[in-house]
């Protein structure tokens, strides 16, 4: 009875938690995106304060806890009132194992291809490169070091793509689960160690991997510890769950998974995010006064690829402005929403900036481009010590 309860609890929680997370898909439905406003509004009504469901927010942890308790109750009712026969239990176990493997494969392929095409760990932005290491938060420091190496990003991505593909076929599913268990244990350790805010999600995926790998763990223990290899007791496809229509459905699902994982990346036309074209004026600049101005003069200025103009003081503190381009002009807005405007002219001397910032300070600066692409972190490694 305990095993029957555990399987039903795992099935209900995994299905509901994955379905209610605000994950966007291209082909597959995204119910979590539609449900998010309703769930957040319900949490706000119950607690009397704003509730947000994202990353490692308190709201998401609370929602996961409610789902754990609620699905445990539903699983208990299911066990108490439902009919349990060996055939039904075999169908339930096969469905849970296969469905979990499919969900896990989708996530591994998405994250894996993101790394292979270097979309997840992108090249560090100039403002990050010129910020002292000790001033970077742990997650950004890790992200920047990973983004500096394309070869390791591809390697890390293939370590996720491989188990993702193995999970799609019954004969290789246990091997894929064991590999995914090792890969995701490392991912969770990185997220915890570097304070990357997807700890709950990576822990959930690790739990899925443990469930898929469970039938093979006994085989690994018997072979490596007791030196008695035995066939793993993997879930067998129930009678009737086969035929042409089942094969066609599996092929359709495989195509959908691959489209979800690699489609957006192939559609962009870039197999390496480092080669994606950057916006105008993107880069790092050393700033000097070029005329009467008010307010402090920054040490450096940066144009970020995601639409930000950033200044760096002599003490290395950063101030960020959202950036919109207009003909010959940069339209800025600071965090308080105050507008600013900088007219610019680019010549051999550098970037001439005239105008005001959101604080009202006037600007007459000459910004000279810095060779940020040639910094040591971005140089290719050497095989031999010089």
Give the secondary structure arrangement, pairings included.
Elements: H1 2-20, H2 31-47, H3 58-81, H4 86-116, H5 126-129, H6 138-147, H7 150-166, H8 173-193, H9 199-224, H10 244-268, E1 283-289, E2 300-304, E3 308-312, E4 318-326, E5 329-333, E6 339-347, E7 350-356, E8 362-369
Antiparallel strand pairs: 1-2, 1-8, 2-3, 3-4, 4-5, 5-6, 6-7, 7-8
Helix pairs in contact: 1-3, 1-4, 4-7, 4-9, 4-10, 7-8, 8-9
Elements, N to C (H/E): HHHHHHHHHHEEEEEEEE
Q: Which parts are unreliable, with pLDDT below 50 for 5 consecutive residues or more?
A: none
How many domains? The number is 2
CA distance, first residue to last residue: 66 Å
**Gross geometry:** elongated
Rg over CA atoms: 26 Å
Strand content: 5-15%
Total DSSP E strands: 8
Helical proportion, percent range: 40-55%
Strand order of the largest sheet: 1-2-3-4-5-6-7-8
Give me the secondary-structure category. Answer: alpha+beta
- Whole-number mean pLDDT: 87
Q: Count of helical segments?
A: 10
Largest sheet: 8 strands, antiparallel, barrel
């Amino acid at each position: 009875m305990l095993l029957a309860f555990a399987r039903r609890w795992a099935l209900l929680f995994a299905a509901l938690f994955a379905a209610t997370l605000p994950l966007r898909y291209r082909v597959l439905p995204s119910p979590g995106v539609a449900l998010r406003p309703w769930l957040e509004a319900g949490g706000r009504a119950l607690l009397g304060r704003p509730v947000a469901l994202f990353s490692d927010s308190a709201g998401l942890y609370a929602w996961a806890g409610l789902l754990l308790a609620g699905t445990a109750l539903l699983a208990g009712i299911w066990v108490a009132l439902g009919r349990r026969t060996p055939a039904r239990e075999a169908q339930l176990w096969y469905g849970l194992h296969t469905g979990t493997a499919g969900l896990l494969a989708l996530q591994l392929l998405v994250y894996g291809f993101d790394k292979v095409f270097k979309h997840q760990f992108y090249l560090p932005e100039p403002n990050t490169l010129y910020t002292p290491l000790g001033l970077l938060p742990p997650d950004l420091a890790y992200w920047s070091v990973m983004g500096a190496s394309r070869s390791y990003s591809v390697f890390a991505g293939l370590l996720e793509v491989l188990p993702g593909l193995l999970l799609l076929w019954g004969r290789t599913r246990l091997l894929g689960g064991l590999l995914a268990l090792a890969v995701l244990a490392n991912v969770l350790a990185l997220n915890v160690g570097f304070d990357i805010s997807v700890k709950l999600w990576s822990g959930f995926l690790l739990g899925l991997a443990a469930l898929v790998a469970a039938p093979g763990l006994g085989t690994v223990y018997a072979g490596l510890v007791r030196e008695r290899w035995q066939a793993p007791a993997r879930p067998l496809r129930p009678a009737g769950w086969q035929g042409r229509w089942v094969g066609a459905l599996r092929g359709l699902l495989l195509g959908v998974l691959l489209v979800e994982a690699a489609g957006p990346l192939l559609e962009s036309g870039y197999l390496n995010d480092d080669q994606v074209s950057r916006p105008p004026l993107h880069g790092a600049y050393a700033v000097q006064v070029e005329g009467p101005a008010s307010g402090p003069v920054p040490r450096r200025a940066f144009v970020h690829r995601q639409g930000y103009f950033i200044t760096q003081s002599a003490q290395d503190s950063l101030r960020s402005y959202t950036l919109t381009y207009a003909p010959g002009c940069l339209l800025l807005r600071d965090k308080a929403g105050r507008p600013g405007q900088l007219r610019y002219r680019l010549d051999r001397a550098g970037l001439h900036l005239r105008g005001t910032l959101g604080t009202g300070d006037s600007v007459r600066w000459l910004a000279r481009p810095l060779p940020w692409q040639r910094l040591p972190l971005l140089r290719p490694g050497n095989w031999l010590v010089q």
